[in-house]
Amino acid sequence: MSQEGAHLWEPPAGTTAITRTRWRFLLPSELVLWSAQKRRENGDRAVELYVVIVTLLLAVLWWEVGRDLQGQMLAGLAGYRLAEIFAVGTGLIAGSKAASVAHRLHTIGLYGLQMVLIFAIFGEVFVSDSGNWAGSMPHDQVGWLYLSLTNLLVRGNQYVPNSHLAEGLIVLTLGSGVFLLSVFVAFAVSRLPGRS
Question: What is the pTM of this model?
């Protein structure tokens, strides 16, 4: 079927079996890519712009998020973005041609920055009570950013979790750091001569 007549549930020709599902359109980046391709525009460029805009929105959320219900809802949106990053990264690791949104090094770097911001938001919203930490804990946005960055880089820091929720945040952040590292490795391998 030609691209002009393709329906929303039919992926562009040449995509792998992994992406041949309606569920991929739950990801906003895929909708941006599909829309740009439909208008015969550069889809990668449109998705890169989307990634930059989302990064800026996450930075605003990180700075302004509170511990109230609104903060929890915004953290839920950040969690949705984290799921999208995992979906796109998994596509790149699996060698999917449809994971074009992660085919540039600076885009993957922005995904890393988004993960740092997302985990800083999670920390501020869900584990900012002193009972979650033994001894010292982050007290402001910059402290949560530091905790998120050092754990994402698998470096660690002086903050010791004292609850299952805080431990879960640390483990999820560490696991995301390892995942992001594997996305970087998959990116490098995909660029080797002889790989298409």
Answer: 0.80
